[in-house]
Amino acid sequence: MIAGYVNVGQNDQALKLFEEMRNAGEHPDEVTMLSLLSACSQLGDLETGKSLHFSIFQAGLLTEAFQFIDKMNVEPNGIIWRTLLGACALHGNIEIGKRATERLMKLRRDESGDYVLLSNMYAAVGEWGGFEKVRQVMDDYGVWKEPGYSIVEPDNKAVIKLLSRSRSSHVPES
């Protein structure tokens, strides 16, 4: 029923029915959970989406999630594949992460965060060859991650410390 609501764009109804389901003590299956994630994505409901994301992937349903997304009646968007990739990174599931990345790369190749998630996943499990390969693909496609930085204002003078380069530079006040 929830998947049906989502498929016809009645995302609010899907979330309402889910709440009723939870109040009745019922537990959703993976199809329902992924449908709800899609509803949250379409509604821009980040908080509910985060909660559902955690529940799905904490339960170890990454393979089921991939299969469901891959067979959805509507074409999954980058947000859906990126959500699965993030869950794979969180749980160190490189195999499903690689498959999600393949699907994601068919949709977009210019999002540095997608590559960074996958490369960090490889690094977390010590697969440095995979890490280097992902970084090389980024270079090949001209994708780069903007360096992180923090701004500190001692004595009313802004200083930017580039985290990726471990050096500081003074920034003129505006």
Automatic annotation (TrEMBL):
GO MF term (any one): RNA binding
InterPro entries in the record: E_motif (IPR046848), PPR_At4g14850-like_plant (IPR046960), PPR_rpt (IPR002885), TPR-like_helical_dom_sf (IPR011990)
BP GO terms, sorted: RNA modification
PPR repeat extents: 1-28
Record keywords, A-Z: Repeat
Superkingdom per UniProt: Eukaryota
One Pfam family in the UniProt entry: PPR_2
NCBIfam families xrefs: PPR
Annotated protein name in UniProt: Pentatricopeptide repeat-containing protein
Organism, scientific name: Linum tenue
